[in-house]
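As promised in the previous annual report, we have extended the structural survey to additional targets. Below is the entry for N-methylhydantoinase A.
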Amino acid sequence: MRSVRIGVDTGGTFTDVVAVDEQTGEITTTKTPSTPADPADGFMNGVHKVLGGEDLAGVAGIVHGTTVATNQLLEDRPVNLGFVTTEGFEFILEIARQSVPDGYGNSYFWVKPPRIVPVHMVRTVGGRLDHLGQEVRPFDEDEAVRAARWFRDQGVTAIGVCFLHSYADPAHELRMREVLEREHPEAVVSISSDVLREYREYERSVTTLVDAAVKPTMRRYIAGLSARLGMPFSVMKSNGGVLSATEVVHQPITTVLSGPAAGALGAALIAATAGHPSVITLDGGGTSTDVAVVVDGEPSLTTEGSIGRYPCKIPMIDIVTVGAGGGSVAWISPEGTLKVGPRSAGADPGPLCYGRGGTEVTVTDAHVYLGRVPPHLLGGEIPLSADAARAGVEALAAKLGLTPERTAAGVLEISAYNQSNAIRQITVKRGLDVRDFPMVAFGGSGPLLICRLVDILGLPAVVVPPNPGNVSAFGLLTVDVKNDYVRTHVTKDLSPDTAAAILSDLEDQAADALHREGFPADRHVFARSADLRYNGQAYEVRVPAPAGPVDAAWRDEVTARFHEAHRRLYGYGYRDDPRHAVEWVNLRVSGIGPITRPVIPEHPESDGPTPEPASTRPVHFDDGWHDTPVYRRAGLRRGHIVTGPAVIEEYGSTLPLHPGFTAEVDARANLVVHRIDPANGGRR
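The corresponding structure token record, generated without further manual editing, is:
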């Protein structure tokens, strides 16, 4: 009987689907328009489409990358949300970090955005723990009951609880949850010691409230999708792991970067298989572009991320998102200058060329006007109106006093610079030289601007995988089950016995979760790490910690790794300077349940020259219009080389190859794009 695993990535414009046959290794890909009103419709359409009309009987598993939680945070201020905190700390959200965002050097011009919970929706409860978890004042049960009843009477159904120093001992938070469950059983409750058991009360509070805010929506979505599927499925998490849908509803905040994380992991595997262990990944979609950096096969992780204006300190792949997708709108600022994004036309009505009522020029319309994309998408399933794009570009050009060609090219140039600035954020700002990293470009719009990015950033090469529009969905099938656990323990003199006890407790929690996911004990993998800093510093550096006995030698090894990581990140360290003590802050454990990943096959050498182009059409590049050859990617084989100007088309994506560039098919069927350098054998 046929057995397939399916990955479904729901984006703002398209839902991408990949199926892998577990017996033969055959990979099948497809795309279908997303359905923003109910993402489950697009999900089900994609699953049935990739199965070719067959039922779900032969499906061994489904992994889903979803933007439901992310979109709720980006598009709507959370409503009907309450907050319970320690007596005397009711203004913790108002005070925040007292920081003014970059670009507002004079804080008089900065208007503080609304808090995630307004102060009148905050209730406090008496009781106090110190930083070691010892009780200073007992928990006030009567105040807790009054708070719970007040939220019930106000109709508040999502509540976050964050008490001071609950990372050291969750007892007071657990009692508050019991009171809420008894007095207000309709409420959905998140407590900070479950969501993020580490110090820094402001970030812990907001992270907990974000979890509470998205819980009702995620639970409804997961329940509806489960009912329609009639089978279990898993959901991608921001940390680079997956979790069953039945578990993820209890920690929905972990899904806030679900789709982009899958794309970075899929691209990392594709690049490593092609011999590029360290790369930049660029995932270009209809609404935005997500970029990440992969070093030695692993995407970088961070706990300093945010979704919109909300800091979320959960572990997540370090991804920078910029509003530079195919649907990004071109507009004229009050000063009369051309701008592109971050606002997007989305999937509905979409760009002008979609013919669905769009009224503004988008990046996709500029590509259509310049002939760089075909007059249809998805192999003809979605026809594009070149006339609508032309009319829109010409109208915008008239307002700017430019030719239509310069206007369309300007839209693309601004979009390329928006993408390049995002790439600099994850490389140059982190001490990495962007010129050392090839780039993997994927997503439906990812390959469209890569030639300009090579010139702007000095990239050595760009790798475009087969079916680039489906790399995120493919990435969903490469991901292990993974849960992260953390415990704050601030000390300059770490006791190995104390560290061993904390790590053992965290590993027990991880093991319990892996058992619930169906992994036997002999398949459990535990990855330890620790956050350290020099005494007096405000923020710490995370380093991997070895497995095995936790003793003095273990402690010394982790400390040595911290010195080296600090030197590598900041250019200096104090390894041999006793005046700068090392302070331990957090101990962490990731519980991993490994899966069997799809195999990317190696393709045989071509037995003939590069095939003739399938057609030609006028395409505008930097030096004007060219009668440009158009190649079908399906006809290209290993070793074939295409020289620009040219266009390479496939289902779901297009690569415009500018003059002065070549694209060569490698052993894994990737297109490797280089700038031609006549003095160096034809490559940069």
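The mean pLDDT is 90. The two ends are 50 Å apart (CA to CA). These points will be discussed at the next consortium meeting with the crystallography subgroup.
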